[in-house]
Specification:
The chain has about 300 residues and is an all-alpha fold. It folds into two domains: about 1-120, DNA polymerase, domain 1 (Orthogonal Bundle), CATH 1.10.150.130; about 130-295, Orthogonal Bundle (hpI Integrase, Chain A). Helices cover about 60% and strands about 0% of the residues. The chain contains 14 helices and three strands. It has helices at about 1-30, 35-55, 65-75, 80-100, 130-140, 145-155, 160-165, 195-210, 230-240, 250-265, 270-275, 280-285, 285-300, 305-310; strands spanning about 170-175, 180, 190. The longest helix is centred in the first third of the chain and has 28 residues, at about 1-30. The model is unreliable at about 1-10 and about 305-310 (pLDDT under 50).
Length: about 300
């Protein structure tokens, strides 16, 4: 029985990999794409083919339900921004369409992989109450000043984790309440600092940080005074979100920041600037969450909705 499963695994692995190779060859020969572009497609599709093989699924037998499962897993990966998820969708859409054209895949997936559906697969975001509970946990943890400052940068400022770990003291203007992080494309932007965030950052920078005997001018440091690693930040997030019934990564706080800003009525263009998105279409991905929030609020507070529940 075990030998049979191993045989099927290698059989599926060979078939699925061959299909991916055929598509990549098509991109190079028929569409004349550059080697660098083809490599990007290969990276995206490698995860998909690997998932098929691990689950013993031949592409021809991949149902829309199973595809939905893969897309949900992919979007929930740590550090997958909306742009990254959109790129995966695009790569997978092209691959499956090609497979349909050559008779290797029979299911229709256009509606599932359409742009507007992308929002369905965004990583979870936290409610305001859940965010408050994370800050409370940090305040009562082993390194309250440092951990609180970390969450302030991720949530209150909505920074990417790479920006949080890379921001320098010179990029924090506590007196004028501004941050100037350097984001993708080496672009610097202005991000306002709220009074509470300023207070917590000042406490870390002036009281807690010097105790680590810093060897660098990075704001966020580990206990040895060196720049904190991504794994270090991830462990802190896991520690202070263990009480939540959600899979939370550092990027979850940026998603939560964007969602809560939209819920409060922030203009989409302003949010685009705060997040450092080059294209507003990336920011628009968050509007689906806002719409879901509106639906929930309507169901909970509309007189007729409430009356209906009481009957």
């Amino acid at each position: 029985m075990r030998e049979g499963r191993i045989y099927l695994y290698f059989r599926y692995m060979s078939l699925n990999s061959n299909r991916m190779d055929a598509y990549l060859a098509f991109l190079g020969v028929e569409r004349n794409l550059s080697p660098k572009t083809i490599q990007s497609y290969q990276e995206d599709l490698r995860h998909f083919v690997g998932w098929l093989d691990e689950n013993g699924i031949d592409l021809k037998e991949l149902t829309p339900e199973k595809l939905d499962e893969f897309l949900t897993i992919t979007a929930g990966q740590e550090e997958y921004s909306p742009t990254s998820v959109a790129r995966h969708f695009s790569s997978l859409r092209g691959f499956l369409k090609y497979m349909q054209n050559i008779g290797e895949y029979d299911f229709s997936t256009e509606s599932m992989l359409a742009g507007p559906k992308l929002g369905h697969y965004l990583p979870q975001y936290l409610t305001r109450e859940e965010v408050d509970s994370v800050f409370e946990s940090a305040a009562n943890g082993k390194n309250p000043l440092r951990d609180t400052a970390l969450f302030e940068l991720m949530y209150s400022a909505g920074l990417r984790v790479s920006e949080v770990l890379g921001i320098k003291l010179s990029q924090v203007d506590l007196d004028n309440e501004w941050l100037t992080p350097i984001g993708k494309g080496n672009k610097q932007r202005l991000v306002p600092l709220g009074s509470k965030a300023k207070e917590n950052l000042r406490a870390w920078i002036e009281e807690g940080r010097p105790l680590t005997h810093p060897t660098t001018d990075n704001v966020i440091l580990n206990s040895k005074g060196k720049p904190m690693s991504r794994m270090g930040a991830w462990k802190i997030v896991q520690q202070h979100t263990a009480h939540l019934a959600k899979d939370v990564s550092p990027h979850t706080f940026r998603h939560s920041f964007a969602t809560h800003c939209l819920e409060a009525g922030m203009d989409l263009r302003v949010l685009q600037e705060l997040l450092g998105h080059a294209d507003i279409s990336t920011t628009q991905i968050y509007t689906h969450i806002d719409k879901e929030f509106i639906k929930q609020e309507h169901r909970q507070y509309h007189p007729r909705e409430g009356a209906g529940k009481e009957r």
